[in-house]
Amino acid sequence: MRDPAPELSAPLEELDRELAGLLRAELARERATLNLIASENFVPRALLEVQGSVLTNKYADGYPGAREYDGCEVVDEVERLAIARACALFGAEHANVQPYSGASANFAVLRALAAPGDTVLGWDFTHGGHPTHYDRDTLTGVLYRGVTYHVRRDDRLVDLDEVAALARAERPRVIFVGWCLYTRHLDYRAFREIADEVGAVLVADMAHVSGLVAAGMYPSPVGIADVCTFTTHKTVGGGRGGTILCRQELAGRIDAAVYPGSQGGPLPHVIGAHALAFGLARRPAFRERMARTLSGARVLAGVLADHATETRCDVVTGGTETHQVVLDTSPRGVGASTALEDLHAVGVNANALPLAFDPVPGPTGSGLRLGTAALATRGFADAEFAELGEILAGALGPARGARHAELAGRAEALRAGFPLYPGLG
Ligand code: DSN
Fold first, then answer.
1. Running along the chain, 425 residues long, what does each successive block of 10 average in pLDDT?
2. pTM here?
3. Cα–ligand 1 centroid distance for 103 (angstroms)
4. How far is the CA of 304 from the centre of ligand 1 (A)?
5. Residue nearest atom 6 of ligand 1, based on CA coordinates
6. d(CA 315, CA 37)
7. Contact assessment for residue 408 and residue 395, using Cβ atoms and an 8 Å cutoff
8. Which end of the chain is more exposed for a tag (fewer CB within 10 A), N or C?
């Protein structure tokens, strides 16, 4: 019988060899590197199935039970499942699982809770914060008046005295608390007190730590902040996207600000992926993985601190309480991008960001940010992170170029014990 629509059933290899080749190349790249990029992770193979599923075919503008399209009975259930699992995972009253990203989530929260021109107080990006909390290069800074707080020079911890002083002086409508480069716990209650004193809304962006929060291994801002946002693809290990949590009384405003306020139709295949990720994050295996993530970061920090004299890289704050280890490469006299090249040469990916009081100007500065979430997902535990720390120390040390082949071999041996997506490709 004639296939009336051959393109609907042909595999990618047949339909588009060029693109299929690129997908194979990315899989090979991911398998052949050790990923220490602190904001990345590996999704379960089942999640690839969900994101590549027929859910992508559906328009579903609106919310479960109130859509602008017919035929939403199944995607309604998918979204209800994702919402219920998000609320159960974080102990939240309401979840919006439609934001396309963390940035979209943050913009929607501002649209819901502030008026254009209002002052927004956020954590400076060059001190570890995120641009969408205040910056003129983002929609936030275009629509609102951004003011920033910082970390202290002496201990590199967030300066709560400055936050309080700025809040009193600037009377922000919204205070954001959340970071993309930081290694210590946050005192959300202290931020709450400051917000209450000046009548501000407190928004916690827990993008990096949401997996740790879900596992009870980092302080939770849920129930302390008025609203929490997070990305689903960092420590949670889900598909790319964002989620907003809030109290029931804010649910209507938040939902209206996401759709139709700042986004078009949702991505049902991504929402399906969130349902899977939030479900998996309630299982014991997730807690065990988060424990390895945290412990691995402590081990990595310890090994790198032991080698600080040779590498001329200091461990910022002397250690970590998160999945991140941040190295200050400024004693090397060159920016962190050179350190990145050294790691790349031995098969390790990381990324560079500016540090507070950074002597090296520019968007990458002297901060070498390492994160353990992706490799913990791949199966690494303390022993592997210790060996990886030695490899990094060698790659950054005085004999680095001369040792690249040896270190790349050790990195390959480490990888070989933890095959990525066996059988895929
Ligand atoms: N891009 C994310 C990170 O790397 O931390 C923040 O948006």
1. 88 97 98 98 98 98 98 98 98 98 98 98 97 94 97 98 98 98 98 98 98 98 98 98 98 98 98 98 98 98 98 97 97 91 97 94 90 98 98 94 95 97 92
2. 0.97
3. 10
4. 23
5. 180
6. 16
7. no
8. N
